[in-house]
Amino acid sequence: xxxxxxxxxxxxRQSLLGEHRELHGIVSILAHNKKGYSRHPETRRWLxxxxxxxxxxxxxxxxxxxxxxxxxxxxxxxxxSKQWPAVYLDEPAAQFALxxxxxxxxxxxxxxxxxxxxxxxxxxxxSVLARDVQLYKKxxxxxxxxxxxxxxxxxxxxxxxxxxxxxxGLKNAxxxxxxxxxxxxxxxxxxxxxxxWHQLLQETQLRAMLHKEPYLIASTALGxxxxxxxxxxxxxxxxxxx
Length: 242
Hints:
mainly alpha, 54% helix, 0% strand, globular
């Protein structure tokens, strides 16, 4: 039984669907006081983190939708804090290593497991941009100058993806990822400037997956930004893209 802390984009099909099943199992155990795995370390670390568990479910559902799976089992939102578990069964860097060993001779996830700190940062750049532009610049500089370590950065990025983006940051990140596929077919019937933010993400995802656009295929933002659009009132407004 495991709920991963890294982006679901790194999980292959089996791991992604498996975590989704196990998350529902943990919710059921916590909601109905079932004895089965109630003492399992993974179950115990999610005690009193009901709303955070619901957000992880939304992250999984967004990644499943990106890969063509239909998620039709809404998770029961347990009463509890928005705080995420204070402990890890394995630190995020160790989770990458576990998956690396697990996926030998098996299909990979959508996002390649990072081989170095530069690749790890590249995969998370737009997700960080959506949250804090100054932090985006700071991490970029530290990574380029060798002033951060893989273990430290992996933990920082995993925890940043739990934080809701700012409204302005979300728009900025969406415009950046759209720029990677704006010139790829299919040609839009409508002017992109008339699209909602939700439409812009959908069109970006469509083109990125259809053409296997390498940068976005390997970006956490391509899947996870959709989680937060559900909470954004701005998505009903027109997006200002050129």
